[in-house]
Amino acid sequence: MERSLWRQAQRGQAQALEILINQALKPQGLRVRVQQRWRQLVIHCDSPARIPAQGWTRFIQRGLGRLQYQSRQPVWLDGGDWQVVVNLGVRVPPSPTWLPYALGLVGAGSLVLGGWLAYQWQPPATIAQDVPETKITPAATPLPTPTVITIKAVGDVILGSNFPDNRLHPQPRQLLQQVQADLGGADVVFGNLETTITDHPYSSKNVNGRSVFAFRMPPSYAQILRSAGFTIFSLANNHSGDFGDIGLRDTARHLQNAGMPSFGKRGEIFYQTVRGVRLAWIGFSPYDYHNSVLELTTAQKLVQQARTQADLVIISSHMGAEGTGALRTRNQNEVFFGEDRGNPIQFSRRMIDSGADLVLGHGPHVPRAIEVYRGKLIAYSLGNFIGYRTLGSQAELGYSLILETQLAADGSLMGARVIPVIIQGEGIPVPDRQNRTIKLIQELNRLDTPGSTWVLGNDGVMRPRN
Hints:
This protein has helices at residues 2-10, 14-25, 53-66, 99-102, 124-130, 180-183, 221-228, 244-257, 296-307, 344-353, 436-448; strands at 33-37, 40-44, 75-78, 83-85, 137-138, 148-158, 160-161, 167-168, 188-193, 232-234, 262-263, 270-274, 277-285, 291-292, 312-318, 335-336, 339-340, 358-362, 370-373, 376-379, 384-387, 399-408, 413-424, 428-431, 454-456, 461-464. It is of the alpha/beta class. The chain folds into 2 domains: 1-87, Threonyl-tRNA Synthetase, Chain A, domain 2 (2-Layer Sandwich), CATH 3.30.980; 148-464, 4-Layer Sandwich (Purple Acid Phosphatase, chain A, domain 2), CATH 3.60.21. Strands 6, 9, 10, 11, 21, 22, 23, 24, 25 and 26 form a 10-stranded mixed beta sheet that branches. Strands 12, 13, 14, 15, 18, 19 and 20 form a 7-stranded mixed beta sheet that branches. The longest helix has 14 residues, at 53-66. It holds the Pfam family PGA_cap.
């Protein structure tokens, strides 16, 4: 834990730096707040202390040097009535290479000794007296307002099916009316389209077989989805190919014509620009005709490629066992109907390690745990969202949610919220005033992701763990 925190701080991870700096400042009764804004690191200094800008600047400059700070992102100091860009070009004696290891068993606070305390840390007020004069660059302009992208995401979406028999709603535009307001107010609204949109008459599946289903919606339903607020869909799942290549192409075309791009083909990275921020979307499933969750090395390379071309990298992963017996998320491969559906924890964390900023899981048809790992959010399953006369809604199959996340353009998680939904009757979603989904996910988080750095509150808001 201690070594990991030290390394994260070296790489410029805001939360790790804040912990280390504040432990060094604690004896002096001072604090800082560290945030990511766009591609800059911002350190908010304790302005009530009335310590001059020069004292803070030299203190932070010296500490980052001794920490062997490796990130190239600019560092701003914000003292309320002054702002300074720290010059990281000043040479400061590095910490001995043995120091973090020698101190590794005496507590997280001791690691600060490797940076600020090992050389008899002095408070900012006195640092200015014993560090050689260095150039302090005043901020010529105010700190830029960070661009924050709000993404709302849901799980499996099927508005009904007209194959092999007619299971369509007589007034389909009513299907999403009660949750439409909750889908609003976002820059991006994502869903996993667990069906096809086509008139093609021939399914690629033998629906007479045991537990074999093929879903098909009329082309007009694409506009219903767009009117409800959806902006993008993943097609990397086990039903997008229910009507072969023709049905898959039709689905993508109808979505695109309605103003909603889709993604999910093998080798595909879909890029889009939202309010000046470049997003990369990659869809995964257990099948080799999509990007496969079973091919970790290939998946990591795809994410790394996207990382070089986009500000935010978002993963859609269709994986895991299904049903009310599959609520738990464990660090092991899951098998369903004889298929290896992958290891959700291993896959999701590897994607984050490779550069992804957000992982949106679906496939189990029930909600699962949500964790924040290395500052990035992983939703292991968003469950069903709508499955009119197609998907089960009994017990936890009917527990649903809209996951809202706010991501800064540099990938920092700025906020997250679970908006609870319950699926009623024949599969129609409505707001859940009893917060059943929140309570369920809280319990699953306690069982399956106790190490998450954020926690889910009773109000559905996720906050950093104290």
